[in-house]
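Sequence, please.
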């Protein structure tokens, strides 16, 4: 009987037992995200245009700074998994919300407005953030990406590529929340007072080309007309589609710069002549994003399946935002001081004034 004992009782722990803390951390984030989703569905909250992603990071920040000590340390790996790897999958599946047919329907005007806003906001905005306001590279890039492309989803995608600290993502998302929410009230007010000399198409181009989040675009444009809402949503999704080429360019840029500043400093301190160059890698989730846009464009999946996958994707994105919030500390955010807020305000001023000028110019050129 003794010889059978090792076979009956394997001394090696099972996979589930060995990774119990990680699974518990992931389950905790999932339950947190489920509660956040229910809160976001409340009529009083949804009318404010606050998506589950935004509520998730706010709730996560509150939890991470007030009661984080109550969470076992072994759960941290699961939280980090949600904030890093799980979000890549969610960003890829975001492609099911877009089709190439919708992009083509807005014509050259929509593409011109979207491309100009994305390129100028990212390039000029990042340069000003780093050179004028002395923000570090990641803070400037994350905030510019959230303003230029698609709000929190873009911040998540850039955060994954840059491998930046969670508190920097939280600061970037904070500007998206603040100024995107302001847009939902300011843009319709400007339209009603007659300050926007734009027709229905121009209004849709302006709203979709300059407001941060998809939900915020829909909320603002719905106060104008259904036609403006349709155009604004498509233009907004055109900006979302530009996430892929922008990520590819970012990867090439990072590769040309070589290793990060920290690695370079360490190499110099050790007497190394030159830091090794960063290997060029194409973000797999960006390729997955394009592939799923193609799947949606070709109608390869039934409509109910696409709807269900989009719901699941929103929930997974909410998990990622919640996990980022949990990993964020107020002390880290305070280090940026008022510069991050000033930078967000500067980007918003450009989107509001410069974006209006770009819209008028595009309508004049591409009649």
């Amino acid at each position: 009987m003794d010889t059978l004992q090792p076979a009956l009782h394997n001394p090696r722990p099972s996979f589930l037992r060995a990774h119990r803390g990680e699974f518990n951390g992931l389950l905790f984030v999932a339950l947190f995200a489920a509660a956040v989703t229910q809160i976001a569905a409340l009529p009083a909250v949804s009318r404010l245009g606050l998506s589950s992603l935004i509520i998730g990071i706010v709730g996560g920040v509150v939890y991470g700074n007030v009661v984080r000590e109550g969470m076992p340390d072994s759960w941290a790996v699961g939280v980090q998994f949600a904030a890093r790897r799980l979000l890549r999958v969610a960003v890829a599946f975001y492609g099911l919300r877009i089709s190439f047919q919708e992009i083509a329907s807005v014509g050259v005007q929509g593409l011109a407005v979207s491309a100009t806003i994305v390129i100028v906001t990212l390039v000029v905005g990042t340069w000003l953030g780093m050179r004028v306001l002395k923000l570090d590279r990641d803070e400037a890039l994350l905030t510019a990406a959230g303003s230029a492309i698609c709000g929190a989803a873009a911040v998540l995608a850039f955060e994954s590529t840059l491998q930046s600290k969670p508190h920097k993502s939280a600061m970037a998302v904070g500007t998206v929340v603040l100024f995107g929410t302001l847009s939902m009230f300011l843009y319709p007010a400007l339209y009603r007072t007659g300050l926007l000399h734009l027709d229905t198409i121009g209004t849709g181009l302006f709203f979709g080309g300059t407001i941060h989040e998809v939900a915020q675009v829909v909320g603002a444009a719905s106060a104008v007309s259904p036609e403006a809402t349709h155009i604004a949503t498509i233009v907004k999704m055109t900006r979302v589609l530009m996430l892929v080429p922008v990520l590819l360019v970012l990867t090439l840029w990072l590769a040309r710069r070589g290793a990060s500043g920290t690695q370079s400093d360490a190499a110099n301190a050790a007497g190394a002549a030159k830091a090794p160059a960063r290997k060029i890698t194409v973000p797999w989730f960006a390729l997955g994003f394009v592939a799923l846009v193609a799947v949606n464009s070709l109608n390869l999946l039934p409509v109910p399946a696409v709807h269900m996958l989009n719901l699941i994707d929103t929930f997974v994105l909410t998990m990622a935002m919640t996990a980022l919030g949990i990993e964020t500390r107020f002390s880290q955010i305070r280090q940026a001081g008022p510069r991050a807020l000033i930078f967000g305000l500067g980007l918003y001023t450009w989107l509001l004034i410069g974006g209006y000028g770009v819209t008028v110019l595009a309508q004049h050129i591409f009649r």
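The chain is about 75% helix and 0% strand.
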